[in-house]
Amino acid sequence: MFTFSVRNRLLVLTLPGKRSAEDWTIRLLPLESVTTLVVREPRPATPAADPIFEVDVARRRQRERERLERSQAEAEAANPAASREGRAVYLALRRTMECKWDGVDIVVLGEVRVAPPYSPGDCVPLPAGSAGSLERVRRVLAAARAKVPPG
C-alpha cells in the first residue's frame, strides 16, 4: 500500500510483514527521490481512506541538526595528526570541558593549551586564560591520564 503527504512531500509505503499481520514496515521517501511508481495490484476503492500520520517536520529537522552536530564533534575528535594517546586524552577532557584541536595541541575552555605528551606539566595558559582555569585543567588532565593507557 502507498499514500503520500503533499504537505510533507513524502511518499509513504506500507509493506506487510512476514511474521504476522501486525508486523508492518513503513518507509518514508522524499517525493523528489521518486522517479517512477508502478502499481502491480490496484486496491479496491473504499469510502474511508486509511489514516496517515503526519510527520512533525520541525522535530525531524531538529533531530537532523543534532545528529549533524554530533557527527561533526566526533569527526573533530578523531584528529589524525594526533597520537592515539592524544586522542584518548582529548576524549577524556571533552567529557567535562569544552575542547578543540589546534594541530596536535588541545585547547581547553579557550583558556589553556595542552601540548604533547599531554601531561599536567604541558598545560600553558592562553592570554585569555586564568590561573583558576589552568589549575582546573591540570587536575582534570591528571585524573584523565590515570585512566588512559600509555602508547
Over all CA atoms, what is the radius of gyration?
A: 26 Å
Q: Regions with pLDDT < 50 over 5+ consecutive residues?
A: none
Average pLDDT, to the nearest integer?
A: 83
Morphology call:
elongated
Describe the biggest sheet?
A: 4 strands, antiparallel
Question: What is the helix tally?
Answer: 3
**Count of beta strands:** 7
* Secondary-structure element string: EEEHHEEEEH
| Number of separate structural domains | 2
What is the terminal separation in angstroms?
57 Å
Percentage of residues assigned to helices: 25-40%
Beta-strand content: 15-25%
Structural class: alpha+beta
Neighbour order of strands in the largest sheet: 4-5-6-7
Detail the topology: elements first, then pairings:
Blueprint: E1 2-5, E2 10-16, E3 24-30, H1 57-77, H2 84-94, E4 99-102, E5 105-108, E6 112-114, E7 123-125, H3 131-147
Antiparallel strand pairs: 1-2, 2-3, 4-5, 5-6, 6-7
